[in-house]
Input
Amino acid sequence: VSCLVVLPTYNEIANVESMLRALRAEGLDVLVVDDASPDGTAESAEVTGTQLGGICVLRRSAKGGLGSAYRAGFSWGLDREYERLVEIDCDFSHDPSALGGLLEAALDADVVIGSRYVTGGSTEGWSLRRRWLSRAGSLYASTLLDLRVADATSGYRVYSAQGLRAMDYETVGSDGYGFQIEMTDRARRAGLVIREVPITFRERRGGRSKMSGAIVKEALIWVSATALGRLVARATRMKIARPLDVSRRGRTTS
Ligand SMILES: Nc1nc2c(ncn2[C@@H]2O[C@H](COP(=O)(O)OP(=O)(O)OP(=O)(O)O)[C@@H](O)[C@H]2O)c(=O)[nH]1
Ligand SMILES: [Mg+2]
Output
């Protein structure tokens, strides 16, 4: 099965070369999606690509967010007929050597999630507060949207090309953690097979986090508004359905 790793980068000069080497050691093609990182990440990726082969760099003109980088990367990969598309962070939080296990699980699933919150999964180097926040966020989204996954915000994933197309990923609106949640929701609603594989998530190796309050807020608002919208839609449908039921019953008894 042909497989493309989509690697979004923004100011990852400290990690990008070693990450690319690790991914090429797994024998995988890589597309770096760089949003004009001022630290020279794209140039470094291009140099490494010339040395190792199997690496392309998609240079975008401005920082557009993680979700938008993935949407662009997926389109690039689907146009080139890749059958599996991988999401991974460029900071070694996701261990590239775990990818073999994820890809194996992807043989009979449309979506494989590298999960911190299934048995055997864990996070290393995170404060209790950050761990609690992440778990609570995942639980909130899973419960409200009936996602039936333990780790809805994980960004270490494998998608089948067919699954991505069925999910209509191009119209997903969120960008940060919300992107992962919204993609999981799309997969559920499209009736795709989702599998979770335990991973150990580690604190980023070099460089700085791009996580922000705005990203958390975006996810929280999206989940809450979507759940509320569905609740209202269901209540409205029930209200319309009830009088019809009554009239039908009325007709059969008369
Ligand atoms: N192309 C692109 N990549 C981005 C953007 N924002 C983040 N990334 C990349 O997406 C990946 C995840 O971002 P991180 O900053 O590690 O965010 P995080 O993993 O949620 O947060 P930490 O755990 O604190 O590192 C990294 O490879 C980033 O370089 C963006 O706007 N554009
Ligand atoms: Mg990270």
